[in-house]
């Protein structure tokens, strides 16, 4: 049985969902420290001027957890996001089907970043036909930090294999996994090329881009 884990990101890229579909249990690390200016409160979409950030404004305090990070709702960022998506994907094949679901996702009065992130990644997981079981770290706390936390998660759920991202080999303590009898495998994701607007293909965008551009075929492409 394979376990994998990742922080809940906002509108994640395709590699995130490849990692999720490649394991039996996916742990959303919602109670780890929030990292500013990474992927936890923003992601990129494609516009006529090239890639553009969709950013969720937050009230940041150093050391806070993701599930403690409050949204900055003093600006109407949701309306701005919806306008930007409609402006840039309004003629895309999957727009008519996906956009009402996105509008519904934005509708609740969320107060915490993790709520928005979980809603966005679950919406995209459904569109990409990812059915892997998901659990929250905040509801399954284990002792330890970094590698030891991952080892203890594997022990807690009785898994014998941990699926790490490609960058995991740079920071993971492999000795801890070996001592616990847990095998570690690394993701090797090859980004697909699909039809987009413009003469050149732009990879590593939010998975929104694939679903908007290819509609119901998205799950077979990535």
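Sequence proposed for the structure above (222 residues):
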């Amino acid at each position: 049985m394979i376990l994998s884990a990742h922080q809940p990101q906002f509108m994640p890229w395709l590699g995130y969902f490849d990692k999720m579909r490649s394991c039996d249990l996916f742990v959303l690390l919602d109670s780890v420290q929030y990292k500013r200016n990474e992927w936890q409160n923003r992601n990129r979409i494609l516009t006529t001027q090239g890639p553009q950030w969709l950013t969720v404004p937050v009230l940041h305090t150093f050391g806070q957890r993701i599930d403690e990070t409050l949204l900055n709702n003093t600006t109407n960022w949701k309306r701005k996001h919806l306008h930007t998506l409609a402006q840039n994907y309004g003629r895309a094949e999957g727009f008519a089907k996906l956009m009402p679901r996105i509008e519904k996702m934005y509708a609740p009065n969320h107060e915490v970043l993790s709520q928005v992130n979980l809603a966005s990644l679950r919406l995209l997981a459904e569109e990409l036909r990812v059915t892997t079981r998901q659990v929250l770290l905040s509801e399954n706390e284990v002792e330890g930090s970094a590698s030891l936390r991952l080892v203890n998660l594997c022990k807690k759920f009785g898994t014998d294999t941990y699926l790490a991202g490609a960058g995991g080999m740079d920071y993971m303590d492999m000795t801890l996994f070996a001592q616990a009898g847990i095998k570690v495998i690394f993701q090797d994701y090859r980004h697909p090329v699909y039809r987009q607007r413009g003469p050149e293909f732009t990879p590593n965008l939010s998975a929104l881009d694939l679903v908007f551009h290819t509609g119901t075929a998205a799950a077979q492409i990535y």
